[in-house]
Amino acid sequence: MKTINYEKLTKDEVELSLFSNFNRYQDVKKCWRKENGDLILKEISFTEQWGPNEYKHLVNCLKNTIETGGTVFSVFENNGNSLVGFASLENQLFGTANQYLQLSSIHISYKNRGMGIGKRLFSLVCEQAIEMGAKKLYISAHSSQETQAFYKAVGCVEAIEHNEALVAKEPYDCQLEYGLF
Questions:
Q1: 24, 50 Cβ separation under 8 angstroms
Q2: What are the residue boundaries of the N-acetyltransferase domain, all occurrences included (predicted)?
Q3: Stretch 31-47: mean pLDDT, rounded?
């Protein structure tokens, strides 16, 4: 029987070896695109498979999140021996009423998807965001059909306000929000 443990990571725990068994793989067939103000599901096919460069960049990003007061949650199975998921929450409030905190990443290793791990991570991020004074989560999310299905399932909707810096960085991402109650 597998044991699953959720915990916050410290900056010192975020290192490349943490991701040695993590498989960020996605076979994308369809993506959402905005055309004339409407979201349309289009046939856009590609495979994403993170390699050493993506993981090095990720380590730098996650360390920065922690250094700037944000939080990185991790999910381990088998008593902490294997990372199967993580999520990061930034610490800078933004929006016209400083209502948003950014969920900057949430990923589940390929073989561990569909087990509720992502939903539990999302819930932990929400609890933390409330503690940090946010009224809403902001997510600049991959436009793939599967990714958007996850966010819809947890209750996310199109963001009322768009963070233009995030839109410019990833113009095909869907800008989402989640109300924290």
A1: yes
A2: 17-173
A3: 93
- Asked whether the whole model's pTM tops 0.85, one would answer yes
Within 10 angstroms of residue 152's Cβ, the number of other Cβ atoms is 11
Give the residue numbers spanning the domain of 91. Answer: 4-179
Contact in structure between 42 and 31 (CB atoms under 8 Å): yes
Of the candidates 168, 48, 147, the residue with the CA atom closest to the CA atom of residue 105: 147
Q: What is the pLDDT of residues 137-180, one digit of tens each?
A: 999 999 999 999 999 999 999 999 999 999 999 999 999 999 99
Q: Which tokens in the block code for residue 116?
A: 């509720």
Q: With residue 2 as reference, give the H or E element that holds it.
A: none
What CATH number is given to the structural domain containing 53? 3.40.630.30
Q: How confident is the model at residue 79 (pLDDT cuts 50, 70, 90)?
A: low
- DSSP for 87-142 reads EEE----BSTTS-EEEEEEEEE-GGGTTSSHHHHHHHHHHHHHHHTT-SEEEEEE-
pLDDT of residue 148: 97
Q: How many CB atoms lie within 10 A of CB 164?
A: 9
